[in-house]
């Protein structure tokens, strides 16, 4: 039976079909999770939670033929969430496990020589790169396609290629470290460098050892002429699932499009994880439960920040007169234009449909709606997060006083009606369709630190950028540095933002729906579905899960997509949506979403 037919049967309640899918995908999920988490003792727990979600939410899968990508998306989401819940420790402080996944790989696949070095080099990767390696390893082994990797990472194939290339660079450096450390005898310089090292991979020691290896001809010689990683991994089978997780009896298999789905182990009674999963399917048969689409993006982590931050100020219920005054304030700002000397903090500007830009003739451009003045050309090279801030603060263009734009400031010049790049090309010529830094750090302070970036290919906002990464830079100038918080006014079932003049539905929908259903719901409330730019102003980037003022907007779904009325330029059949797990945006992931209406 084809995979699609099995999926359809499982969605209709066929328990045997569900069991078949669980057994078919368990090895892939185990291998991706194990390689991504390495020595983490909770690998099996994460695998179990992933498979439980697959079983629970199978009914929400609208395209049965995309099952593999969907399962991997759930797996990557669970991996990222688990990594976010780990305490902020170095790589050398991960709790001991009886045997890490790299050792299992070496033993069970009988790896030796350079293949063994690749597995050992994986220990030196950071969490995000380990996840990319886990997926790419399966591509190199012939189990996945690049499109499936991109779908699992929640990005385009082009950016997936960038992430794979970046990971491979780190992996090659790890291979050089492993080869140098394995040398006998070690060079005197390396022996001195590792004095005091306990032999366990750690970020600090990676930097120290790598610095020595790159400058040491003797150490570099040990990794010269290494075989390409793809050739080493080609044909490497899946690591067999541990006995405690094996679930198949008799070596059953599925086949679809010529791809073998045979499990790596056979002939073992159903126990542990899969026994629980199959018991869950029996419960699902007995009592159907509503399902929700599980979607993921790089680095969607629901954890507590290191230091609590105060809530945005929310005033008690105010009169209709106060709301009217707020609207007048916005109208006055529009009329006054940019010569009124108004402070433009946070999103203190009207949400116009079509921004108007003025070329000031000195290498700068002014946005007449926000009154922000922008650097017309991008920085001549990419920068790290810290260097980007320094570049802007030291920029002497047209009198200086520049800063790196905040997330909300940079969002204001995104034009989602365009793509490649998503910006007004007349006002900002030669803008590359690439990621640009913002000055907004991610709320989660787990090392390595990350910050918000915006992709000017289509306008996607992401908090998944390591601050050590290199991205494009465009500086901005204003009377403030884009900081500040909304001062919401609550009145019954609505919340007004005086700065933007927008009045929001306070609670939003309690169930997911299509875009058309969301638009109809808002119309019934005499409101409308917000634009992407409007909904982005409700994100509180100092919080996660949910990244919104919970006093003003209670009951916001922690990890749910909220629809906007903005269609995606790369695919007009899809609408942009925003996820309050962190506040990131996407149009590929949301197939069912919630509605928060505005007027």
From TrEMBL:
- Species of origin: Paractinoplanes durhamensis
Q: Which residues form the RNA polymerase sigma-70 region domain?
A: 21-82
Q: Where is the Lcl C-terminal domain?
A: 363-477, 494-599
Gene3D superfamilies given for it?
Answer: 1.10.1740.10
The molecule here is called Uncharacterized protein
Q: Which domain of life is it from?
A: Bacteria
In terms of SUPFAM superfamilies, this protein maps to: Sigma2 domain of RNA polymerase sigma factors (SSF88946)
Q: What is the lineage of its organism?
A: Bacteria, Bacillati, Actinomycetota, Actinomycetes, Micromonosporales
